[in-house]
Amino acid sequence: MSLHDRLGEDLKHTMKAKDQLRMDVIRMIKAAVMNKELELKKHLDDAEMTRIMASLIKQRKEAVEHYGKAGREDLADKELKKIAIIQSYLPRALTAEEVTQIIDAVVQETGATSLKDMGIVMKTLMARLAGQAVDGKLISDLVRSRLR
Fold it and tell me: Closest Cα to residue 53, out of 78, 75, 82?
């Protein structure tokens, strides 16, 4: 079942169950996907949808941080629940050890030795990790520490 179909089915079930938060999150995901499809004028595959959901998670994490600073723990908790719902649609995230192994393999393949080679490593690495739930900043930090 594709991610599009899964979101549609889950939306039906949440509407029947009257689960307002989950329904709102699914609608948010579907709206973001539809906007991107209209922008690109093509139907998105699961990997592209995963990238959109990763950006939605990033936005929610920033909101949690801002709400925490403002002392609005109730809103921060709601955003954390939204993050959990979005993550339920993403593939299992790679562990730090798995990412480190992939980074080491890419560094060896590309022959990178210094920070000057970081662009080549990142390009190859992101292509290899396409469709995976990964944090780009974490990967960048790991590559930077590996190439020093």
Answer: 82
Instruction: Give the Cα separation of 65 and 35 in Å (integer).
Output: 26
Q: Cα–Cα distance between 79 and 24 in angstroms, integer? A: 12
* Per-residue pLDDT of the chain in tens (148 residues, 90 and over written 9): 889 999 999 999 999 999 999 999 999 999 999 999 999 999 998 888 988 998 999 999 999 999 999 999 999 999 999 999 999 998 877 777 888 898 889 989 888 888 888 889 888 888 888 767 677 778 888 888 888 7
Please, what is the end-to-end C-alpha distance for the chain in angstroms? 44
User: Token match 């998670």: residue?
Assistant: 57
pTM for the model stands at 0.73
> 133: burial class by Cβ within 10 Å (0-12, 13-18, 19+)?
middle
Distance CA 84, CA 94 (A): 16
DSSP 99: H
DSSP symbol at 70: T
